C-alpha cells in the first residue's frame, strides 16, 4: 500500500490560508522550504492540515533519526511532563541531566574520562566549545573550513562559510577566525585528485601556520566529519586523521561538530567512529533530542573542567523533558540497531542514485556516508557549473507529489537525504520513485532552457 496520499493540490486551501497569516506575522528572514503546514506526523510520514500525506526525507533537517513521534520518546516526555517541566539545572538539578551526561560520556568519540555540558541548540554548543577551548589553551584563534556550517549566532556565523543567506548584512563578526579549504574532492580547491594529491588540503594547514596565523595562537580547529549544509561532502580516508594529528602536534583542541552526523546518521553512532579519530571536544544536537531541542558539548574532563563554576550554562540548557527524550532516543537507536539500518538505507539510495548519474547528465556527483547521502546537480562543462535552479525545480516537483526534500551546498545545487532511519523499504522506494520522476522533470526543463538560449 502506498504511503503518499494527496487529497488536494499542494499547497491545499488550509495551508494557503495559514501561509497568508504567516506572511503577516512572521519575518521574511525565516525561510520556508515547502508551503506545507503540518497537523501530525509519525515515523517517516507527515500529514498536513489539508489531510495530505507526505514521505519525509528531510527529518526536520536531521533531527528525527528515530522517526517522528517515536513511541519511546513520546512516552518519556509524557511521563516527565507529569513530574515537572522546568526547574533550571543550575538551581535545583535533576538526575536525568546526570544520566544523559553519563551516557554521552561513554559513547562520544573522545579520549576519556569525559564530561558533558547540555545546552539548547547546535549553535549554542559550538559557542561553548570555542569558549572552553580558548579558556583551556589561553589562545585566541580558531581555524574552520570552507563550506562549513556551524550555526547562526554571531560566533558561529564567523565559523560558517556560506555568505547568502546566512552572513550577508550581519557583519561584523568576531575576529581571530581563519578559514581553510575542506577536502571537497569533487570541487578541489587546488585542482588536484585523490589519492595522487596525498591529502594536500590537510597538510596545507602547516603552511597556514606559517603564512596566516601561528600555530601557537590557535586554540581550536573545528571540523564536521562530513559537511552538512556544505553539501554532504565526506572527506577521503586519512584526512580527518591528519587533521587530528596536526592538532595534537601543536597543542590545538580538535572540535568535532557532529551536530548533523551524530546518532547513527552515517552508519555509526558518530561519524568520527568510521576513522577511529578521537576528538578533544564533540558537539552534538539535532537527533540527540529525538525531536526536542537539546545540544551537548562532550569532551576530555581535563579540558571541560578548566573553566570555573558559573562560567558555563544556560537557563533552559538540559531541560528535563529534552533529557528524558534524549535518553529514550539513544535507547531506540541502540535497541533497533539504527546504525545498521542507516547503512542499508544508504546502499538502497546509492543503488538508484548511481544509475541516475549514468542516465542524467544533470547528476554530477553521488556521495555520502551511511544514510547521509546526496546528489549534486550540475550543468555540462569542464567546471561543472552548479544547477541551482534545477534543484529548486526538483524539490518543488517532489513536495507537489508527496515527498519532502531539503537542499544543501554553498551553491544551493545539492539535494540531501535526512529521512528518519525508521522509514521502511517500501516507503523509501516510493519516495525515490518520486525523486526519479522529479529528475526527469528537471532534466527536461534544463534542456528546454538550453534550447531557448
Molecular structure report:
The chain is of the alpha/beta class and 453 residues long. It has two domains: 13-66 and 337-452, Aspartate Aminotransferase, domain 1 (Alpha-Beta Complex), CATH 3.90.1150; 73-335, 3-Layer(aba) Sandwich (Aspartate Aminotransferase, domain 2), CATH 3.40.640.10. It has 13 helices and 15 strands. The protein has helices at residues 13-25, 59-62, 71-81, 95-107, 122-137, 154-159, 200-211, 239-250, 301-304, 320-335, 338-359, 388-400, 425-452; strands at 38-42, 45-48, 53-56, 114-119, 141-145, 177-180, 218-223, 253-257, 281-284, 295-300, 363-369, 372-377, 403-404, 406-408, 414-417. Strands 4-10-9-8-7-5-6 form a seven-stranded mixed sheet, sandwiched between helices. A four-stranded mixed sheet has the order 1-2-3-13. Helix 3 runs antiparallel to helix 10, helix 7 (200-211) runs parallel beside helix 8 and helix 12 (388-400) crosses helix 13 (425-452). It starts with 12 loop residues before the first helix and ends with a helix. The mean pLDDT is 96.
Number of domains: 2
Alpha plus pi helix count: 13
At the fourth level of CATH, the homologous superfamily of the largest domain is Type I PLP-dependent aspartate aminotransferase-like (Major domain)
> What multimeric state do the chains show?
single chain
Kindly estimate the percentage of residues that lie in beta strands according to DSSP: 15-25%
